[in-house]
Design brief:
The complex is a heterodimer of chains A (127) and B (435). Chain A has 127 residues and is α+β, with helices and mostly antiparallel strands. Chain A has 2 domains: 65 residues, no CATH class; 33 residues, no CATH class. Chain A contains 2 helices and 5 strands, in the order ββββαβα. Chain B is 14% helix and 29% strand. Chain B has 6 helices and 23 strands. Chain B is globular and about 120 Å long. Classes of the chains: A alpha+beta (127), B alpha+beta (435).
Chain lengths: 127, 435
């Protein structure tokens, strides 16, 4: 069984679950976990708002040393979605119907937050 | 004032009893009703299901007279489906049976009531198991001090979540703690004295929890003197949807097959989903379509998460024509109807994990139920009611036992998917009445 070194990058305890077993990784701790468990624990501890909407790449609160992951200290954000919608910015396509109906995204970058989008952009040539 | 009033003539008044007994127990089992399974009989040691799991990788584009790939072969794997048993029993004295047989003597016959309702109670356990991963876990211990009769619990049914940890624990149950790493039963067995309606605490009969630790599984024990893990519910429940539709988070071995090495038996699961959005839900449908050509037919979630789906369209709703005069701010969900997402019904389920949304392709995924006993009173000795005890322990009392034995199975878990860790919902959770 291959063991990997997992580093908790945050100053808070982190939890993961694999095969129904709860795993507690203490703040800033470095622990050895079986490869499959280490990968699952990392996947389950995403830094919210870090997922690139175009590539799917994201950052994690856990780093695996053998994968050359970033293991520098970092904390969880206040962002409520995994996806970084700010990257979409005004390039996010907004459909306005003739009847004046807007999509949710036209009013708010993220559900529950005030709009920061500004007017809908129609010129996407710079993308 | 002298004279006759109701107090003075109290002795002549009768109590008037309405006939029948009102039903105060929620016997609805929505997930069991929703999932239509193909039933197959179980025989022998175990059911072995063979699966084609990998390709011959030799096909290769080649030049004229060039070498080509070495011979490959098809890959096959076997799955081993076992059986899980649910048992219950009741005990009645001869007097309670005898004195409750007529309408004049009792609202309901004790024999009829005990036997009929016990089957409903079995169905309730079936519903709990179907919403779980089949580990028989009621919750996890959520404290390290463990020095009070008030015990903190979380992760109801062992499913990760910090809320309403006591939802599957009931007063009167005996419980034990199991070390998740070893599957060993800890020493103390406790009795649950009371359970708050919707919370993370239970009250036990004593503050002794020898060797119990934070994150231990809390399982049901048969009685107060249990010392063997065999006499607990641990790993004895049939698998529920959290085990069948999974990527290894709750069941890394799919009936003996390593889920991570065989993609067809691993569902698409997103951990730490965060806030729900329409593109996120669409992404799930796109993934299962690419993976196995899956077409989602049902979306399952708890009521609290369903309200998030309603919120997705709240700000886009407009009223016109006659509805301007009587604008209806509600949706079909108010009458507990299914609200649609892409015409697929989003079904709210009482016992479903609180922050999970599950996507099922019931047409193609192949829900199966291997059954050796669908539900029957134990009567192998010729009688359903058996006398209690013998010799000095004999009593004029009677017991009846009921058994079910089966296992759920999903032919193609990859047709289904799950979003875990959905946030943003205001959790309003009520214990099912009578639980």
């Amino acid at each position: 069984m291959e063991l990997l070194t997992v580093v908790n990058r945050s100053a808070k305890d982190l939890n993961a679950t694999w095969d129904g077993k709860p795993i507690l990784i203490k703040a800033n701790a470095k622990v050895a976990l079986p490869r499959i468990v280490a990968e699952a624990a990392k996947r389950q501890n995403v830094i919210m708002g870090s997922e690139d909407p175009y590539t799917g790449e994201m950052q994690y609160l856990l780093g695996i040393v053998e994968f050359n992951d970033d293991i520098s200290p970092i904390e969880q954000t206040q962002t409520i979605t995994r996806m970084n919608r700010k990257v979409l910015g005004t390039d996010e396509a907004v459909v306005k119907a003739l009847g004046g109906v807007y999509t949710q995204r036209d009013r708010a970058m993220e559900p529950g937050l005030p709009s920061t989008n500004g007017p809908a952009r129609t010129d996407f040539s710079s993308r | 004032m002298a004279g006759a009033d109701k107090q003075a003539l109290d002795a002549v008044f009768k109590d008037v009893f309405e006939s029948g007994v009102a039903e105060g127990v929620n016997n609805k089992n929505p997930l069991r009703d929703l999932i239509q399974t193909e039933k197959a009989p179980f025989k022998g040691r175990e059911i072995i299901r063979a699966a084609h799991t990998s390709r011959n990788i030799s096909p290769m584009f080649v030049g004229e007279d060039s070498a080509f790939g070495e011979a490959g072969n098809q890959g096959y794997s076997r799955m081993f489906v076992d059986q899980r048993k649910l048992m219950s029993r009741l005990r009645m004295t001869w007097e309670v049976m005898q004195d409750s047989t007529s309408n004049e003597g009792a609202f309901v016959s004790a024999r009829k009531s005990e036997m009929q309702y016990l089957i409903d109670d079995m169905a309730r356990r079936d519903e709990y198991a179907l919403n779980s991963d089949g580990r028989g876990v009621l919750a996890l211990v959520d404290e390290t001090a463990l020095n009070s009769t008030t015990l903190n619990v979380d992760a109801p049914a062992g499913i990760t979540n910090d809320n309403f940890g006591n939802r599957f624990l009931s007063a009167g149950m005996y419980i034990g703690a199991v070390d998740p790493a070893t599957g060993v039963l800890r020493t103390s067995i406790r009795k649950v004295v009371s359970v708050a309606n919707a919370g993370n605490t239970i009250v036990t009969d004593a503050a002794t929890y020898t060797l119990w630790a934070n994150n231990d599984y809390i399982v049901q024990a048969a009685n107060s003197s249990v010392t063997d893990i065999l006499d607990t519910s641990y790993e004895h429940a049939w698998w529920g949807v959290m085990a069948l539709v999974d990527d290894g988070t709750y069941r890394s071995s799919y009936f003996g097959l390593d889920r991570t090495s065989v993609p067809a038996y691993s569902s698409y699961v997103t951990a730490s989903t965060g806030a729900l959005s329409t593109d996120l839900i669409q992404r799930v449908s796109d993934v299962v379509d690419q993976k196995l050509n899956g077409k989602i037919t049902n979306i399952l979630c708890h009521h609290s998460t369903r309200r998030l789906v309603i919120q997705l369209t709240d700000s886009d709703r407009r009223y016109m024509g006659a509805s301007l005069i009587k604008p209806d701010p509600g949706t079909a969900a108010f009458k507990q109807g299914d609200i649609p997402f892409g015409e697929i019904p989003v079904r709210a389920l009482r016992d479903f994990p609180l922050d999970v949304m599950m996507f099922l392709d019931t047409a193609n995924a192949g829900f199966k139920e291997y059954v050796s006993e669908p539900g029957k009173w134990v009567d192998e000795d010729g009688s359903v009611l058996r006398i209690v005890g013998t010799g000095s322990s004999a009593r004029d009392a009677w017991e009846a036992w009921y058994r079910m034995r089966k296992q759920y199975f999903l032919e193609y878990p990859a047709y289904c998917a799950r979003l875990d860790g959905i946030t943003g919902q205001s959790l309003v959770v009520q214990r099912a009445s009578g639980s």
